Amino acid sequence: MDKLLIRGGRELRGTVQISGAKNAALPQMCAALLTTERVTLLNVPRLRDIATMRQLLDNMGVKTQTHGERGGLTLCAANPISPEAPYELVKTMRASVLALGPLLARFGEATVSLPGGCAIGSRPVDQHIKGLQAMGADITVEHGYMIARLAAGQTRLRGARITTDMVTVTGTENLMMAATLAQGETILENAAQEPEIPDLADMLIKMGARIEGHGTSRIRIQGVEKLHGCEHQVVADRIEAGTFLCATAATGGDVYLKHGRADHLEAVIEKLRDAGATVTAVQDGIRIQSSGRLQAQSFRTTEYPGFPTDMQAQFMALNCVSSGTAKVTETIFENRFMHVNELVRLGAKIQIDGKVSVVEGVEKLSGATLMATDLRASAGLVIAGLMASGDTLVDRIYHLDRGYDQMEAKLQAIGADIERVK
Ligand code: EPZ
pLDDT tens digits for 236-256? Predict the structure, then answer.
């Protein structure tokens, strides 16, 4: 099992190239199921979840092919396709549920394993099911699988007005994809506004879909008869960029994030500026300069454009050594403080009280052996290791590999003393 060995205390200086967004590429790969024609995605990040999604689509009969330099991935879902997503693949990646909407829209049937929970929470998909049922799907759950069919007498999904009980990112994506081929108009109220949603909509529009309002809480889709192929560049990963911003703020230094989108990270950048870092939007990227001890910042995670839950662990790590006390409130997931006990092993002073963690900044953290528990928690532990004195060994970094494209190589290139050990 791979580990990361980090010798902390070094500043970060130089340029990091931000990869395409995992959480944009995953639904866009599923969107290829909506057409028989070839779809080409560019700037696809090289990481585990992308490989898992490829395996899932290959398993259905989709032809996929990577092509070299620009992170190119071509997908072709010409017939025949078996509309199934088996448990052994779905259990490792919840985003597999994103196949459900496209399969139903194109083939009128789908058998997709329920994702099961994961480390950060139960992660139900009841809103995905509710929305598809409103569009005329019969969905039953048997032996851990969602068995979806069109209701008797229906040859296509039909447009509907759907208000999800809460804002759901993949729920919005699933329903938006399904609606592109439905009969009539679909209106998604309470839609998620994360940048990955407009990026998916932009791709679907290139395929011939008719979508308005993407990026707002109300998305309108007019169904069409069929969609054609397209080429689309995946938007830059705002969470990878945010992670490197927090790392540089924590260690001190001067880093340019090439391709980073400051307009997708306003809530995080505002908190970093309040903490005392200098963050500027520059030509095709973001620059961060930071030196000395920062001021601790309280924050609460909310849906976009609020502070992203996927940045909570990373900014908490920064708060551990900032001056003052900060309250970190996690409102999206019920169990997303597992990095706290690991940070305490480095000497951090953190008290958890339900949805709130109170972080009292200390002068210095000291290196220790840590265990990663989930994707973004492991990013927080890496940041803590980069600023702790002495050696930090982060175990179970397969969690990190799910969502970060060559993180240690990118960190080494800007001065970090970090290496992958078996
Ligand atoms: C997406 O997960 C992201 N994953 C997550 O990133 C991210 O943390 C999350 O959105 C929130 O921003 C992908 O895009 C692949 P939700 P998703 O549906 O869509 C509840 C990472 O690190 N809910 O927006 O699964 C749910 O339990 C991952 O890359 C229901 O109750 O999250 C949660 O409390 C981790 N029923 C809240 O809504 C449903 O049917 C938001 O979940 C759907 C969601």
Answer: 999 999 999 999 999 999 999
| Cα end-to-end distance, the chain, whole Å | 6
Q: What angle do CA 4, 10, 12 make, to 5 degrees?
A: 90
Token code pair at residue 239: 């969470």
Task: Report residue 357's pLDDT band, with 50, 70 and 90 as the boundaries.
Answer: very high
The reply to whether omega before 305 is within 30° of 0 (cis) is yes
Q: Is 376 in the pocket of ligand 1 (CB under 6 A)?
A: yes
For residues 313 and 28, what is the distance between their CA atoms, to the nearest angstrom? 27
Lookup result for tokens 């480095």: 346
Q: Are 89 and 115 in contact (CB under 8 A)?
A: no
CA dihedral 105, 109, 113, 115 (to 10 degrees): 20
Q: What is the pTM of this model?
A: 0.97
Q: What percent of the chain has pLDDT over 90?
A: 92
Q: Is 118 a catalytic residue?
A: yes
Structure tokens at 144: 């851990």
Which atom of ligand 1 is nearest to 126's Cα?
40
- The answer to which of 41-45, 70-74, 354-358 has the lowest mean pLDDT is 70-74
- Cβ–ligand 1 distance for 26 under 6 Å, the answer yes
